[in-house]
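re the bet — no i am not wrong, look at it urself. input seq straight from the record:
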Amino acid sequence: MLILGSSSPARQKALREAGYQFTVLSADIDEKAIRHEHPENLTHLLANAKLDALIERVTEPATLVCADTVVFFNGEIWEKPADEKEHREMLQTVHSVPFTITTSVAVINLNSQRRASGTDTVSFRLDPLPSDLVETLITEPKNQIRAGGFGVQDIRLAPYLHPLEGNVEAAVGIPISVLRNLLEEVAYSA
């Protein structure tokens, strides 16, 4: 059995589209209590903390998968916007320099206790967004729970968003190529 330790609709969609059957548990941790100045290290720490929080809740043989994503912009790590003001600032300033989206995935096979984690990063440039699009994005609940306050898969951003380096799938839910390698490493079998 595969368990996704995330209530993220984007992660669930990515797993479904990749052909995985899974159940969902949500890891309710205080993400703000875990800090690091490097996005790769922060997402790694958060994904593993979610995994640790869920291990005790799973009582049957399973493989557990957790992930975390941040945006790194102009030397700062952006997570989910704290409020509408921060959300607006993010969307109005993200165009000024290229940014990266980093996602770490942590996996444990609870039968063997084999554990593995991996990270993928993709970089983008975003043209300035029209003010009416910014206001629309702010009002949508799905964007309020996304790192940086937006999703690169949003078709409305397509005219403004330019991938620069890396695999775009790393920025949408969960990087499936990283997940597949990790599942193989911990000897997951469907």
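see?? The chain has six helices and seven strands. told u. also The radius of gyration is 17 Å. so pay up
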